[in-house]
Write a structure and sequence with these properties.
The complex is a heterodimer. Chain A contains 4 helices and no strands. Chain A has one domain. Chain A is mostly helical. Chain B has 2 domains: 33 residues, no CATH class; 145 residues, Nitrile hydratase alpha /Thiocyanate hydrolase gamma (Nitrile Hydratase, Chain A, Alpha-Beta Complex). In chain B, helix 3 packs across helix 4, helix 4 crosses helix 5 and helix 8 crosses helix 9. Chain B has 11 helices and 4 strands. The chains are: A mainly alpha, B mainly alpha. Chains A and B meet through helix 1, helix 2, helix 3 and helix 4 of A and helix 1, helix 2, helix 3, helix 7 and helix 8 of B.
């Protein structure tokens, strides 16, 4: 449980997506989508799940963070599961079809509503 | 392609959670619930601007100014706002002072509530299930695993952070720092000391710059 004592300015995020999901949540909180006490309560429940054996502590923590955000947004009808899935596929396609070194830009899925 | 062993010309596919975050982000941007500038500002702030150096400066200031220290212990918010150590997740702070008789330790048993404006993003161990579960139950044992072995006479007080209130430990000023100024002092204040999992070691009296 102990870590380095050293640098006064340690690296804040281990992976870019950790920073991205953190920023999304903070931005949504500031935009009034949910309160922070509400967030903390929901996040706390999800954090009780145990990490998988091959999962780092940080990955588990931010995966639960992401799951919490997905649940809250779905319940608030701000991001439905089908729309999120369409966007996941759009991003996956974009990565698979973009030549290495080029900017990856997904094609927005059409809204099924 | 230097990284490539088999012959695929496309960009490497990010992890599944990473794709899910990108998906949420795209959807919310499309719906204009958030904007790109706000996201960039948040990441830049916590990646590059805010960290334990803020708390360290505050501690150094408190060590050198008795009335500032008293104000921080009594009612820190006006002082923190004035000094610019105010913002998200630091709206309600309490500063707790370590003494010979009392050692303070901060945890968040709920999730990972932490004073962002003063310490930035919490370290891995602070977010771990083990620390969160054990800090309240067996604080002396946890402290000893961090290398902090307190005399039996020293009381330990554990502060459980919440989404509403956050804590910062004011560590004891180590011996051998008499006459040091704020920039010198703030260099020796560590993040862990401000959470309570470290006691700052005595300094040997010679400054890093080589001055006597």
């Amino acid at each position: 449980m102990r870590d380095e004592h050293g640098p006064i300015k340690p690296k804040a995020f281990a992976e870019p997506w950790h920073a991205e999901v953190f920023a999304l949540s903070v931005a949504l909180n500031e935009a009034g989508a949910f309160s922070w006490p509400f967030w903390a309560q929901r996040f706390s429940k999800n954090l009780k799940s145990m990490p998988k054996p091959d999962q780092s502590q940080e990955d588990h923590y931010y995966l639960q963070w992401l799951v919490t955000l997905e649940q809250i947004l779905q319940e608030a009808e701000l991001a439905s599961e089908p729309m999120v899935s369409h966007w996941v596929e759009a991003w996956r396609q974009a990565y698979l079809e973009t030549p290495h070194g080029n900017a990856v830009i997904p094609i927005p899925p059409s809204d099924p509503r | 392609m230097p990284h490539d062993h088999h012959d695929h010309p496309h960009t490497d596919l990010p992890s599944e959670p990473s794709l899910r975050v990108k998906a949420l982000e795209s959807l919310l941007l499309q719906k204009q619930l958030i904007n790109r500038d706000a996201l960039d500002e948040i990441i830049d702030t916590y990646q590059n601007k805010i960290g334990p150096q803020n708390g360290a400066k505050l501690v150094a200031m408190a060590w050198t100014d008795q009335s500032l220290k008293q104000a921080l212990l009594d009612d820190p918010m006006p002082v923190l706002q004035q000094l610019g150590f105010y913002g998200r997740q630091g709206e309600h702070m309490k500063i707790v002072e370590n003494t010979d008789d009392l050692h303070n330790l901060v945890v968040c048993t709920l999730c990972s509530c932490y004073p962002w404006p003063l310490l930035g993003i919490p370290p891995s161990w602070y977010k771990s299930d083990a620390y969160r579960a054990r800090a309240v139950r067996e604080p002396r044992k946890v402290l000893s695993e961090f290398g902090v072995d307190l005399p039996q006479a020293t009381k330990v007080r554990v502060w459980d952070s919440t989404a509403e209130i956050r804590y910062l430990v004011l560590p004891q000023r180590p011996a051998g720092t008499e006459g040091w100024d704020i920039p010198q002092l703030q260099k020796i204040v560590t993040r862990n000391a401000m959470i309570g999992t470290e006691i700052l070691p005595p300094q040997n009296g010679t400054l890093e710059s080589g001055e006597a």
